[in-house]
Specification:
With 316 residues, the protein is an alpha+beta fold. The protein has 8 helices and 8 strands, in the order ααααααααββββββββ.
Length: 316
C-alpha cells in the first residue's frame, strides 16, 4: 500500500494556483501586503524577500492577460481576408478587367488565365502567389491602374495579417510560458516564507494564517472560460458574486458582435446595462459596468442572426 505524502511536504500554494493565474495574483498580493507591518523588522524582511517575486509575477500576468485572444484574432483576420478575396475582391477586379478587355482577348487571358478559380481554392500561400502574379501582370496596363493599386494594397494588408499571426502566435506562447515560470517561482518563494513564519509562530501556529489568503488557497474556482456561441443565442456562462471593482477581460474571438452582462436569473434576458464587444476585439471592464451587483449569473449574447461567435472571458 502506497504511503500518502505528509501534507507539510506539499506546496499547497503551488497546487492551488495550478491552472489559475488569477489565484496566484490574489494570493501573492495578499501576503506581500499582510507582511507590510511598520516597525516589525522580521516581517518587513520577509516582505523584502517576497516583493520582487510578486512584482515580477504581476508584470508577466498583465502581459499574458493582454496577449489573450491576439493569436486567434490574427487567425480570424486572415480568414476574413481570404473569404473576401474569393467573393468580393476578385469579383470586382474581374469585372473591372472585363470592362477594358473582353474575356476572349489575349490580355484578359494573360491576367486571368483561370478566371477567378485560383483566388477561391488552394492554400493561402497559393492565393497570395496568384495575387502577386496579378500585380506584376498589371504593370503598365492601360486602363487598369486603379485595379493594380487596389491589388497592391490588398497584398500589403494580407502580408501584414499573416505576419501578425506568426508574431502573435509566438508572443502568446512566450507570454504563457513566462507567467507560468513566474507562478512557480512565486509559489516556491511563498512556501519558503510559510516555513519561516511557521518557525516564528511555533508557539501560536494559527497566527501564521494571518499572512496568507487561506480562503483563496482552499477554494479553487475557474477563472477563464473559452466558448463558442450559436447564431442569435444567449448562454449562461457562470455564476459568481463579485464586487464592483473586480475586473473582467472580455475577448471576442469571432466575427460577430457579442453582448456581455450579469443577469438576475439563470437564462435571464440581458437588460439595459451591458458591454458590447466588436469582432476580434478585447476590453477590460469593471464588474459595475455589467449590470446590477446583486445579479450573479453571467450571460453572453450573440447579436448576429447569420453567424456563430467565439469568445473568451477572464476574471482578472
Amino acid at each position: 500500500m502506497a504511503e500518502r505524502l505528509w501534507h507539510y511536504l506539499i506546496n499547497s500554494i503551488l497546487v492551488a494556483t495550478l491552472g489559475s493565474y488569477r489565484a496566484m495574483r490574489v494570493i501573492g498580493n495578499f501576503t506581500v501586503n499582510a507582511l507590510n507591518v511598520t516597525g516589525n523588522t522580521f516581517l518587513l524582511a520577509l516582505r523584502a524577500r517576497l516583493l520582487p517575486f510578486v512584482t515580477d509575477y504581476n508584470s508577466k500576468y498583465t502581459i499574458w492577460l493582454n496577449s489573450l485572444g491576439t493569436e486567434e484574432s490574427s487567425v480570424n483576420s486572415v480568414y476574413v481576408f481570404f473569404q473576401l478575396l474569393r467573393s468580393t475582391y476578385i469579383r470586382d477586379w474581374d469585372i473591372a478587367i472585363q470592362s477594358v478587355y473582353n474575356i476572349k482577348t489575349a490580355m484578359y487571358k494573360l491576367l486571368m488565365p483561370d478566371r477567378r478559380t485560383p483566388y477561391q481554392t488552394g492554400s493561402e500561400e497559393d492565393k497570395l502567389g496568384f495575387l502577386q502574379a496579378l500585380s506584376l501582370g498589371l504593370v503598365g496596363v492601360a486602363g487598369l491602374a486603379a485595379v493594380k493599386t487596389d491589388v497592391d494594397a490588398k497584398i500589403v494588408i494580407i502580408q501584414g495579417f499573416m505576419n501578425a499571426r506568426t508574431t502573435n502566435k509566438a508572443g502568446s506562447r512566450t507570454a504563457s510560458d513566462n507567467v507560468e515560470e513566474a507562478r512557480v517561482a512565486l509559489a516556491e518563494e511563498m512556501y519558503g516564507i510559510l516555513g519561516q513564519l511557521m518557525d516564528h509562530n511555533r508557539a501560536t501556529p494559527e497566527a501564521t494564517g494571518n499572512y496568507f489568503d487561506v480562503s483563496a488557497i482552499r477554494n479553487l474556482e475557474q477563472t477563464l472560460w473559452r466558448r463558442a456561441i450559436k447564431i442569435a443565442k444567449t448562454i449562461a456562462l457562470f455564476t459568481r458574486t463579485l464586487v464592483p471593482t473586480d475586473q473582467l477581460r472580455l475577448v471576442n474571438l469571432g466575427l460577430t458582435t457579442l453582448r456581455f452582462a450579469f443577469v438576475a436569473t439563470k437564462g435571464g434576458v440581458i437588460g439595459i446595462i451591458f458591454v458590447d464587444v466588436l469582432p476580434l476585439q478585447g476590453v477590460t471592464v469593471n464588474r459595475s459596468a455589467l449590470g446590477a451587483i446583486s445579479s450573479r449569473f453571467f450571460a453572453v449574447e450573440n447579436l448576429s442572426t447569420t453567424a456563430p461567435g467565439k469568445f473568451m472571458v477572464v476574471l482578472i
